[in-house]
Write a structure and sequence with these properties.
single chain, alpha/beta, TIM Barrel, Rossmann fold, 2 domains, ten-stranded mixed beta sheet, globular
């Protein structure tokens, strides 16, 4: 049965991008046809990463802390099973001052990336002890606090040159001032932060995006020459350039925090690639692509779904597809006040369509039991596909507030109950529980992510992270941070996470927010080529014109990407 209202229920899909000091991604566009203007506005979710300050995938929620969080013990991160080198990485981060909590967020993101290559340990830089550096294949230090008191032993061990170090942003002057021969040995000398608007960073002949309103500054240099090598360059509005990243000997220096204001096709991808130089330099270049069909539920249109799947199969394209097991409209939002409750097992045509998708090579993915929460707006309509299921979000005049865990969500048992209900509904419909999950709205609490790690082998999504996970302290759900990854990782929650780099196709224009069309996806896929073993991953709603999917697939193939199954990344 065709779902005539499904075009009004285009989901909330928070796209993860990093955030900490200011890094995040927004929301997916809903297709509004008959709703009142205000509700139209509320239902506009952005599929691309657009600067929206109140979105925790672009800037962190929460301000300065009067009392810094406790430093905590070192966190040991598990490497991705089967990673190429099983290298080890030491992640050091800042903790002092009212914004010290950002250091833990950045360290979480750096550790997630490092897990692609092997094991990692994160600890506050103030806890560093002499000789620690030599115990690891490489070190990432994120200088997020200006004037963090760096231990002399750390500076000495960096300068010794026996371990590769990626130094990000602040406090490089403490290293240069502690070593009078720094300029002679390394060939460069940092100077002052350049606050010129920079919208482009060039790397490997690609022009990567940068949020030009980011005025935190990028390091400039008083001296730069042999043996230093400029790895990437900032491009000012007047087309003049200066270094973004420099390498000499064991030291790679990046003049800003790449995790701040991340977007698709962003200069963050440079850091993702530079990690190969430090941790797996012999990695062969390959470019793979993933596509998944989004937001399928019991009232989705089986005809559109089958048309899409048959085209993918006939063109040799493996794919994943999201399934929500139970459709709820508890307040009759779309039916004139008449509640709807439609479990999957009551929809034989949709069940047949799903079976066909699997026969055509599609990989089923969990996407929530109901993709909504109770009979209250969370944040929009309380209808399946519109709202979040695992995190409380409110909306007021278009402004979203990430409140925190839902009232029942006090430990992992609540999320586990939702997963169990999902599995029971699939069993009643003749299916087994999938091994891959994507949280509705890319939003969940720490207990929910922990429950998912014990239920699903893999998550395919962008993810929220919170202070307290690395330090084993009380979780601060008021300061969420989002990240996407261009290759598979084993994140701090203990799950394998698949790449989610390109967002989704969205042909609608709404409230002066531009659509995200195949050309935009393809352009960011071209930028993603800078990651030598990166994955171009995007999603598509089968109720959009099939031509959008066809154009995108062909565009990625023309760039040299090879489509693979979600099971093979």
């Amino acid at each position: 049965m065709k779902d005539i209202k499904s075009k009004q229920r285009r989901k909330l899909l928070l796209l993860g991008g990093a955030l900490a000091a200011q890094a995040c991604l927004p929301m997916r566009a809903a297709r509004a046809i008959t709703l009142p203007p205000l509700l139209d506005l509320l239902k506009r979710y952005m599929a691309s990463i657009i600067p929206v300050p109140n979105n925790p995938y672009f800037v962190p929620q929460g301000g300065a802390l009067a009392v810094p969080r406790p430093a905590g013990a070192p966190f040991s991160g598990t490497g991705l099973p089967g990673s190429a080198t099983q290298a080890s990485t030491l992640v050091l981060y800042d903790t002092t001052g009212p914004w010290g909590w950002l250091g833990e967020i950045y360290a979480t993101m750096a550790g997630n990336l490092a897990s692609h290559f092997g094991t990692w340990v994160a600890m506050p830089v103030v806890s560093y002890a002499a000789g620690t550096l030599q115990q690891y294949s490489a070190c990432i230090y994120i200088g997020s606090t200006y004037g963090e008191p760096l231990p002399a032993a750390f500076l000495t061990d960096v300068y010794a040159g026996t371990t590769k170090v990626i130094w990000i942003y602040d406090n490089i002057w403490q290293l240069t001032s502690s070593q009078p021969q720094f300029a002679a040995q390394y060939g460069f000398m940092p100077s002052v932060f350049d606050t010129s608007p920079v919208a482009t960073v060039t790397y490997k002949s690609q022009s990567l995006k940068r949020y030009s309103a980011n005025a935190a500054g990028i390091m400039s240099y008083s001296t730069i020459g042999a043996p230093a090598t400029v790895l990437a360059e900032c491009v000012r509005a007047d087309s003049t350039t200066f270094p973004w990243a420099v390498r000499s000997g064991n030291l790679t220096y990046i003049g800003e925090i790449p995790f701040a204001y991340m977007t698709e096709g962003d200069r963050y991808l440079i850091l993702c690639d530079l990690l190969f130089d430090a941790l797996a330099p012999m990695t062969a270049t390959q470019h793979r692509a993933l596509v998944r069909l989004e937001d399928l539920h019991p009232l989705s249109d089986p005809t559109a779904l089958l048309q899409t799947a048959e085209w993918l199969f006939s063109n040799g394209i493996p794919f994943g597809f999201h399934i929500t097991a139970r459709y709820l409209d508890p307040n009759g939002y779309h039916t004139g006040g008449v509640p709807q409750d439609v479990p999957l097992h009551t929809q034989p045509l949709m069940i047949a369509a799903i079976r066909t998708l699997q026969l055509l090579g599609g990989v089923m993915m969990h996407h929530g039991y109901t993709h909504q929460y109770s009979n209250i707006a969370n944040p929009y309509t309380a209808v399946t596909g519109d709202d979040c299921e695992f995190y409380r979000i409110t909306a007021s005049n278009g402004v979203l507030t990430y409140v925190g865990p839902l009232p029942e969500d006090t430990d992992s048992s609540w999320a586990q109950g939702r997963f169990d209900s999902y599995a029971a509904e699939l069993t009643a419909s003749g299916f087994t529980m999938p091994g891959i999950s994507t949280f509705p709205g890319y939003s969940a609490s720490v207990p929910d992510y922990q429950a998912a790690a014990g239920t699903f082998a893999v998550r395919a999504e962008r993810t929220l992270y919170f202070p307290g996970v690395l330090t084993n302290q009380t979780i601060d759900h008021t300061r969420p941070a989002g990240q996407y990854v261009p290759y598979s990782v084993q994140d701090v929650y203990g799950s394998k996470v698949l790449p989610d780099t390109l967002g989704g196709i969205d042909p609608d224009v709404f409230f002066n927010i531009p659509p995200r069309l195949p050309a935009d996806i393809i352009a960011d896929a071209r930028r993603t080529l800078v990651v030598r073993d990166g994955v171009a991953s995007f999603f598509y709603n089968p109720e959009d014109p099939l031509s959008y999917l066809q154009q995108t697939v062909q565009g990625l193939r023309d760039l040299g990407y090879q489509f693979v199954s979600p099971l093979d990344v």
